[in-house]
Hints:
Helix content: 40-55%
Structural class: alpha+beta
CATH architecture of the largest domain: 2-Layer Sandwich
Largest sheet: 8 strands, mixed
Bound molecules: histidyl-adenosine monophosphate
Number of domains: 2
Number of helices: 16
CATH class of the largest domain: Alpha Beta
CATH superfamily of the largest domain: Bira Bifunctional Protein, Domain 2
CATH topology of the largest domain: BirA Bifunctional Protein, domain 2
Amino acid sequence: MTITSIKGFRDVLPEESARRHVILSTSRRILEAYGFGEIELPLLEKVELFSRSVGASSDIVEKEMYAFEDRDGAVIALRPEGTASVVRAYIEGGLPRSMPVARLHYSGPMFRRERPQKGRYRQFTQIGAELLGRDDPGADAETLCLVADICTAIGVAGMRIEINSLGDAACRPAYREALAEYGRERLDQLCEDCKARLDRNPLRLLDCKQAGCRAAMADAPMMIDRLCEPCRAHHDQVLSLLAAAGVEVHANPRMVRGLDYYCRTAFEVVASGLGSQDAVGGGGRYDGLVKALGGPEVAGIGFAFGVERLELASREAAEPVAAPRILIAPIGDEAAAAALALARRLRQTGTRVEVESARRRLKAQMQRADKLGVRFVVIVGENELAQGRAMVRDLHAKQDHPSLFALDDDALAIQAVLTRLEEVS
Ligand code: HAM
């Protein structure tokens, strides 16, 4: 019996991998332009890091975490997200003193035991960034500029940034209670999950996908209408800075996010064509988190993109993977040695070269060249070996160039010959 991968865990094959690399390098370039430095974080953390930050009553911690007991009895978890680890590292590394304003970015696999579907996996990759030590609206606006710039550079189709304010410790508790009260009055219309959430996490009632809950919550009170004065002023200033910067955002008063650490600004980036899993990224402000994890009172804001979803959403815009420049077609075992040596020299200069099997017929080798889309086939047959020179078939110009260069010519000289052919047509 064949062994398959675990449900929700997937392999990334070269074509997709190449597109992911472009996404990662493009984002990294923009993150660095915004002054973010890379932080590398462990995949395993103590489980209480996530219950104290993401929230003990969040779906992520309650139902989706891969947590297990280590051999020494410690309970550890595969990280479901990166923010908690960044904050832990920030405190543990003494950054509140050495780098009071820290701009950190990270990427790598995250693990959540969700129900797999298109765009939703149990292992997925995030690109994230956290800006610690800034509580002013300028930091929120700058973060959203960064989010917009990354999506634009990657070519996310139908990109739309949705924004909300989740209030803070001054205004949220009363709102939370009002929302729970509203839900309790409609208890019989709610799904079992929402009934259970009512006391522990009533905000989640607003983003339940069940039709009954949606109808019941249609006229529910909204946080954005009940912000305290400082939260309202902060939000207004974020919006006006974004307008001045030319970043379009759309108010979504029902957005609550699935992680408990947020306060004030929360946002999501959705893309078109992804079906139900259309959030390519999300983030927000988390001013109490550093303190909650044992550090000083330091504000923070950040976001994370899902690389799998960015890849799905930008496939149309992605450049096709470049074909190799040269295919070497040796004919017969003796030619194989010359072909291998020649390919190695060319590859050492960075040229992408494929070598065909010397045991295949020239016709089959040419079919492969067509399939790959290469322009130059270097044919090394009996005659070529005898003369010590290669014949080049230019598939674009449909022209043969017998004895174009010597088999032991310098790799750069060979490339120069090919470049000249490219320039002619
Ligand atoms: P999140 O919204 O849970 O936020 O995840 C961010 C992004 O990761 C999502 O928008 C989605 O693209 C991707 N993602 C999440 N779960 C899956 C999954 N099962 N399969 C594929 N992609 C997925 C956070 O994780 C926060 N740490 C973001 C943040 C940073 N907030 C402040 N700083």
